[in-house]
Task: inverse folding
């Protein structure tokens, strides 16, 4: 029997989950739920119904795992603790500072309901977290580094778009090659924000806009750009659409550490991702953890989990025997 | 209270575990067991007793986890199923083809004894297995590649040493750069054994030995060298001792895969290790999994496990709360 997946929220991430479910032969897309008028939503899975979020609880028995594809700012803090009362749920909550609070809220509801809620699933938090934890456990004496990019930061692109005179914008976060190299060489450098990443901005200005003023506003924007070496390129809307319409991303988690009686041997562990589509890759991770949630709840577990609490075998279609024979 | 670690077998790996225990503040080395005369064994941990393997079961109550540091050919198939009757155990069994049989033997004994036995821990099998499994779960449509090196292969070095006229030898396994590059670029190449790795041999010949015959015997040795492009360098014992006395290793696990409704987006996941000391790094992984075995058994679990069955949080000194706050 297939694992029946529900999607809540049909944006970039929800569409990515739809694609991911199609790739996993042990899953089927049972329903899509939306805050919009369901009649207006055209999805790609011809046989899957689209329902209003208002009637989601009526479909409790048709869904094994609900993948919640909302935003971390306002959607997930409300939706995940609420819907784990009815479903096993997965979310991609990525506001690092608020994870403890979100975890506590989801855990309480999930335990009462006997459901599993896996939060903060994706690549960071997610696959990158796994690699920080494994590498730190294996090399307790060492230093870990996370670099992001080259990739599009939606938050930074949005911040540029809010500047007066800007019609459209796309921002790339790029690791500084010399910093990456020093870390890879095990030099354990102390790196400032500016030394780790640069920011590259492609901006479409409105006609007659004051370009130097826009460039200055970008470069001086606190938190977003002021601490970075930022480059601003003014281009046409046509060029932006043609050259910068993708949503690539990626990055690196590197730990270097020492072993030996006196720390005489050095080791470098590196994990990297190069992603054509940030939302589709995130969605693929969500789908794998949906499988885990389904199985863990079947085994009688409940409560809030993160990727750190899930044994890898739960993520795989294959049985333990097959995994040991083929992949161990 | 510390986790009391026992080491069985004080060779390169056992000495590495001794160093690893020193780096983990929640562990202490309770005892070393040896098949040799314990009086002859000088260990670096001044306060730790060395006992004969014959009296190991008398020390059952002094050890929380026994790390078995024997060889996969003959030691571990006997020792791990035997000693899991008395201890939680960890081993680094790496004969891939015999893992299912070894798992079954350890599982049966461990379940009867109410102990945990984690087998095949290290980096391959071990950290590389984890990465094959995570990447395969996240990108179900794709191809995975494992490359080893640059590093010293003990088995291949030993095979050269068995040739008549060879005094000493060291063999390096090296990934072919062009193959690595093609895989990283997502080209999903079909690679023969010869296209993936080359073998580099440093050989000390006995005086008067027939060098061309030795070189030919190496290059034509079935399984070990015949399927590879092999280079043989004859050097002096002094040079071997000076330049090739380390035991470095490492390698790469790379998966490229596609997502999207029609597989239109490509992703590359890469994990790599660059290790100064193969046995010390392996030992560090064993120590982290010893912590997991200790905790899992405390929670009432028993039986044989592999790295695929262990949730990452069990490996870490930190609590779940600390991990979520600091590393997720």
Result:
């Amino acid at each position: 029997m297939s694992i029946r997946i529900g999607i809540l929220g049909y944006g970039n991430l929800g569409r990515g989950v739809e694609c991911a479910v199609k790739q996993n032969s042990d899953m089927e897309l049972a329903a899509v739920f939306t805050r919009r008028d369901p009649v207006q939503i055209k999805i790609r899975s011809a046989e899957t119904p689209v329902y209003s979020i208002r009637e989601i609880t009526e479909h409790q028995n048709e869904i094994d795992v609900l993948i919640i594809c909302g935003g971390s700012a306002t959607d997930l803090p409300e939706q995940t603790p609420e819907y784990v009362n009815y479903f096993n749920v997965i979310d991609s909550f990525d506001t690092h500072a608020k994870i403890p609070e979100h975890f506590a809220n989801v855990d309480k509801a999930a335990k009462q309901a006997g459901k599993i809620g896996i939060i903060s699933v994706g690549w960071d938090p997610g696959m990158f977290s796994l690699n920080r934890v494994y590498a730190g456990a294996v090399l307790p004496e060492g230093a870990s580094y996370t670099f992001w990019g080259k990739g599009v930061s939606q938050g930074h692109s949005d911040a540029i778009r809010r500047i007066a005179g800007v019609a459209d914008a796309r921002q790339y976060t790029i690791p500084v090659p010399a910093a990456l190299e020093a870390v890879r060489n095990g030099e354990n450098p102390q790196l400032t924000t500016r030394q780790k990443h640069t920011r590259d901005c492609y901006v479409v200005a409105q006609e007659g806009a004051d370009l130097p003023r826009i460039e200055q506003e970008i470069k001086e924007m606190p938190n977003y750009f002021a601490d970075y070496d930022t480059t601003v390129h003014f281009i046409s809307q046509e060029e932006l659409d043609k050259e910068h319409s993708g949503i690539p991303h990626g990055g690196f988690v590197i730990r270097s550490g020492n072993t030996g009686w006196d720390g005489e041997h050095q080791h470098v562990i590196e994990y990297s991702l190069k992603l054509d589509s940030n939302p589709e890759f995130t969605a693929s991770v969500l789908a794998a953890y949906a499988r885990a949630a389904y199985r863990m709840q079947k085994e009688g577990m409940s409560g809030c989990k993160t990727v750190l609490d899930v044994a890898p075998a739960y993520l795989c279609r294959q049985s333990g025997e097959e995994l040991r024979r083929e992949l161990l």
